[in-house]
């Protein structure tokens, strides 16, 4: 997942590999609902640039490891299951994946037959409260509008145990005026026009959710929020990290989070 916004769906508005979907297939997907669109894309998804890269997965796993140990793990919007391996490495207990698309879950069953997979909307989880110690999500937050975040993060808070953590990598936005920034703005504008004139809507935006918006929404759900630099991706000219790991912790009864160890670089707010 090398897109400049990790909360955007997977990797960005880029091309696909030789085994990936054609332009016509991508167009059909974009004119479908989110659920049906990913059902159509599922057999080819892992051959597209939308799949979260192994580099991001390894970096996330390595950043979370010092914050453990963890028992049960949950991947929200797990897609074809790329992130389930991160949880398997980190969690001693059951690993569960949730996704709205039945087609994506079919592929996840092939990739992670050891995981429990549930078809559900992440804003309405059919899971027992306080069941997990660690929840992750990779590249899916662009499918949610700011108004969806209270339900999304509220559900995550409910299914995490006190001291449990919700984590996701978040690359910084591209430099204003850069080619990448202009490309993402054009993509979001095209999607807004598409959704204004076509039904069903397909929510997929790269610039709707900023770090500030996410932090405020997580805090509003009851989490304490920290961000950690991910040193694998370096720093910008101004010294800020190119990518952060956002870690939201459900407080314990005493108001303290569990697992006080942090990645080597420490908080990078």
TrEMBL record:
GO molecular function annotation: methyltransferase activity
Biological process annotations from GO: methylation
UniProt keywords, alphabetically: Methyltransferase, Transferase
Keyword NAD found: no
UniProt region (Disordered), positions on chain: 1-22, 249-269
Gene3D superfamilies per UniProt: Vaccinia Virus protein VP39 (3.40.50.150)
InterPro entries registered for this protein in UniProt: Methyltransf_25, Methyltransf_Superfamily, SAM-dependent_MTases_sf
Root EC class: transferase
Domain named Methyltransferase: residues: 74-164
EC number: 2.1.-.-
Positions in coiled-coil regions: none
Name recorded for this polypeptide: Class I SAM-dependent methyltransferase
């Amino acid at each position: 997942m090398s897109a400049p916004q990790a909360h955007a769906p997977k990797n960005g508005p880029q091309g696909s590999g030789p085994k990936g979907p054609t332009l016509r297939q991508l167009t059909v997907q974009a004119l479908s609902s989110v659920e049906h669109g990913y059902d159509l894309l599922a057999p080819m998804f892992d051959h597209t640039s939308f799949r979260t890269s192994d580099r991001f997965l390894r970096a996330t796993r390595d950043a979370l490891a010092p914050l453990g140990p963890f028992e049960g793990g949950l991947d929200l919007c797990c897609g074809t299951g790329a992130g389930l391996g991160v949880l398997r490495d980190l969690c001693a207990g059951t690993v569960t994946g949730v996704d709205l698309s039945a087609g994506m879950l079919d592929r996840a069953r092939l990739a992670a037959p050891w995981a429990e997979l549930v078809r559900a909307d992440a804003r309405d989880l059919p899971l027992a409260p306080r069941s997990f110690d660690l929840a992750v999500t990779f590249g899916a937050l662009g499918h949610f509008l700011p108004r969806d975040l209270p339900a999304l993060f509220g559900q995550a808070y409910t299914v995490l145990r006190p001291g449990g953590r919700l984590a996701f990598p978040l690359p910084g936005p591209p430099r204003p005026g850069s080619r990448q920034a202009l490309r993402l703005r054009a993509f979001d504008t095209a999607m807004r026009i598409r959704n204004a004139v076509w039904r069903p809507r397909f929510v997929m935006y790269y610039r709707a959710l900023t770090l500030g918006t996410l932090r405020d929404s997580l805090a509003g759900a009851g989490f304490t929020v920290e961000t950690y630099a991910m040193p694998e991706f370096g720093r910008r000219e101004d010294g800020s990290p190119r990518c952060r790991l956002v870690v939201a912790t459900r407080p314990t009864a005493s108001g303290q989070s569990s697992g006080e160890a942090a990645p080597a670089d420490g908080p990078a707010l």
